[in-house]
Amino acid sequence: MGWYVLLIAALLMVVLPGCRWLFSRLVMGSRITSLCKEKGHPLHKKKGWLFGCRYGKRADFAVETENDVFAVKLWGVPQRLATLLLHPEGKYSLRRVFSMLLQVKIPLDSSLVSFPAYDFQAFPTDERKPIHAVLLIHPAPLSIRLRDREGKERDLCCGEGYQGMTIMNLNDLKATL
User: Fold this and answer.
1) Are the CB atoms for 55 and 74 separated by under 8 Å?
2) Distance CA 74, CA 61 (A)
3) Residue 36 belongs to what H/E stretch?
4) Could you say which of 41, 77, 127, 177 would form a disulfide bridge with 36 (CB–CB 3.0 to 4.6 Å)?
């Protein structure tokens, strides 16, 4: 009996974040598509653009406005209660907090991973328009923090730059377009 409970708990720990990721990406895709149709902006997208992840090298889609091109790389954190830590040397880690006995909270940071060199020039657009590299964090984590070289952390506001990219969430992107 104990093995069944353990198996179900482990399955839920994997399935629920995956379902959250998939559902939020489907909603995001319909919102971006309808916004581009509403405003008359061309939407350039690669095959399977909704399923773009942090490991792919190319931007997943681009939105061309009257004056600018926003090349967007999708980057999501399936665990809602995780914190995304951005490090100054172009690396990131995830912090998950485990609670025990309602009083003890144990933060666990993953190992550092380097950001791949993303290609934001992957879509055919008007060459006279400037291209803005956007890292769209969706689904978003609990918070995004920037760690400096001394180890101090601060909250990163969406719209701030990091490693030549602008960090945004879906609402920021919609407001920009």
Assistant:
1) no
2) 8
3) helix 2-39
4) 41
Please report, in tens digits, the pLDDT of each residue of the chain (177 residues total).
678 887 787 777 777 777 778 888 899 999 999 999 999 999 998 888 888 888 888 999 999 999 999 999 998 887 777 889 999 888 999 988 777 666 777 777 888 999 888 888 878 777 788 999 999 998 888 889 998 888 898 988 878 899 999 999 888 888 888
Maximum Cα interatomic distance, the chain, rounded to a whole number of Å:
66
Helix (H) or strand (E) holding 79: none
- In sequence order, what are the residues at sequence separation of 6 or more whose Cβ sits closer than 8 angstroms to the Cβ of residue 22? none
d(CA 21, CA 131): 28
- Residue 103 CA from chain centroid, whole number: 30
If DSSP codes are grouped into helix, strand and coil, which group holds residue 68? coil
- 149, 156 contact by CB (below 8 A): no
Tokens of 89: 């040397």
Q: What token pair was written down for 145?
A: 């923090």
State both tokens at 34. 């309808």
